[in-house]
Amino acid sequence: MVEWITSDDLVPYPEALAFMEARADAIAAGEAEECIWLLEHPPLYTAGTSADPSDLVDPDRFEVFQARRGGQYTYHGPGQRVAYVMLDVGRRGHDVRRFVADLEAWVIATLDTFNVKGERRPGRVGVWVSRPDRPRDPDGAVAEDKIAALGIRLRKWVSFHGLSINVEPDLSHFDAIVPCGIREHGVTSLVDLGLPVTMADVDVALRETFPRMITPRDDA
User: Fold this and answer.
1) Are 20 and 12 in contact (CB under 8 A)?
2) 3-state secondary structure of 97
3) Which of 165, 178, 180, 197 is labelled catalytic?
4) What is the pLDDT of residues 155-201, one digit of tens each?
5) Percent of the chain having pLDDT more than 70?
6) pTM, to two decimals
7) Is 14 exposed, middle or buried (0-12, 13-18, 19+ CB in 10 A)?
8) Which residue of 87, 126, 162, 173 sits 20 to 30 Å from the alpha carbon of 146, by its own alpha carbon?
9) Which parts of the chain have pLDDT scores under 70?
10) How do 44-47 and 119-121 pair as beta strands?
11) CA dihedral sign of residues 3, 118, 70, 178
12) Cα separation of 214 and 192, whole Å?
C-alpha cells in the first residue's frame, strides 16, 4: 500500500525535508507505509550534491537550500507539481538506475495523458520535449526544453526527494540558475506548450499512471 498525500498550501522546504527524512526512516523500520506527497513550494532553489556554484547565476533572487539529493541546481515554486516519493527501492530490485528510469517512465506516461511526448536524453536525468515551433539549435538540431526534473536520495534502500513537473510556473524564475547544469537548452511547462492543464489534472494523471510504472518486482 502507498499512502498519497496532497497539500493545498505552499509547503516550506525545511518542513518537507524533515517530513521526508522521518517517513523514510519509518518505512525502513517497517513502521509506516510507503508514501507519495504531492505539493508546491514557495519560490526557492535547491542544490544537489553535484551543484556547481557557478551555476547559481543570481544567488539573491530566492532562498537556496542544500537538498542532499543527487543532481545540481533546481527551481521549485508555485505552478510546479512536486511529487516526493518515499518508496522501498529494495522491494523494486535494489537497482537505483532502474528505479530512476521507472520514475522517468512515470513522468512520460503522465505527460502522454495530455498528448505531450516526453523523452529521455542520454546523459541527462529528467524528461524533455522537442520544440519544432522554435528556431533550431546552432548545430541544426531541433530545439528542446526540459519539462520535468528528477533527483532522489536513498536511506536504507528507501527513497526520498523525487520529481517535479512544470505545470504553470513562472518560467522567468529559472533564469537565476543553470537548471541541472545544462546551459544549451531551455525550460518549458504544460501551459507554455499551449495546454490548459490544471494541477488537479496532473494529480489525476499521476495517480492513474503510477501503478503500471513503479511496482514491486517479483524477483526483488
Assistant:
1) no
2) helix
3) 180
4) 999 999 999 999 999 999 999 988 765 666 789 999 999 999 999 99
5) 94
6) 0.93
7) exposed
8) 87
9) 180-184, 212-220
10) unpaired
11) negative
12) 28
Residue with cell 530566492: 62
- How many beta carbons lie within 10 A of that of residue 30, not counting itself? 7
Parallel/antiparallel/unpaired status of strands 158-166 and 186-187: unpaired
Helix (H, G, I), strand (E, B) or coil at 121: strand
Residue with cell 550534491: 49
Q: What percent of the chain lies above the pLDDT cut of 90?
A: 72
- Is 35 an active-site residue? no
- Measured in degrees and rounded to the nearest 5, phi and psi for residue 130 equal -75, 145
Whether residue 34 contacts residue 20, with contact meaning beta carbons closer than 8 Å, is answered with no
Sheet holding 73-76, edge to edge: 64-66, 44-47, 73-76
Grid cell at residue 20: 521526508
